[in-house]
Design goal:
about 270 residues; 9 helices; 8 strands; four-stranded parallel sheet; single chain; alpha/beta; Rossmann fold
Amino acid sequence: MDNTALPVVYVLSDSIGETAEFVVKAAASQFNSGHIEIRRIPFVYESDTVMEVVEEASEFNSIIAYTLVLTELKEQLEKAAAEKDIPTVDILGPMMGAFTQVMENGPRMEPGLMRRLDEEYFHRIAAIEFAVKYDDGKDPRGLLRADVVLIGVSRTSKTPLSMYLAHKRLKVANLPLVPEVEPPEELYMVPLNKVVGLTINSQQLYDIRVERLKTLGLTTSANYANIKRILEELEYSEKFMKKLGCPIFDVSNKAVEEVANYIFQFIKKGSMTK
């Protein structure tokens, strides 16, 4: 082994190894110029891979850093590396040990959990971006790509519900129903187990719209907050939704979380019965 050569750090992980590589680079930066060679070996689940890495590392001035959670692999790596006089660093071990002291339940010891958490995060972000892009019928093409399509008159919580459901990683598009405007043809192409109608008590809708106009600095005498107009809209929307055949949820005096949970369960049940 040539101790004068550029240090080689082998990064072993049961996931993609980004966390371990970041720690290695941070530590190396404290030594001279921080020039090292990093060889990342991701998705390590078998003992053969561990032995191959140790054998190769023994030929260089090396360190083995790892984020492995399977006890048998960690023990095998530590033993084989010790026999070759190769320094090892268990990057997750000390932190997991600390958590063990303060958590009621022990660690799950499942490889790749961080990667799955990352995937869930990116799915959530994608769902939020989808909800923003296809909010309020901006682009009817989104109806065909959505996991859920919410329909109803203005101010029936379509947008807040879309964002809440997006945080559950559902892609939601919503569409306002207006008596004078024919819904886009894409709506009739969406499977009914993905369409949810929303309705609300007329008096509550009136109060909401009046407050909305005040917020915008507009007169409350506008047709938007006219009770007769509101009744016409609600009658039209409910008649349309019944004809379409989609379920109808009444959002009157209900929190967004409560309605969202009903919708989430409906969609989940629909996907299971396909």
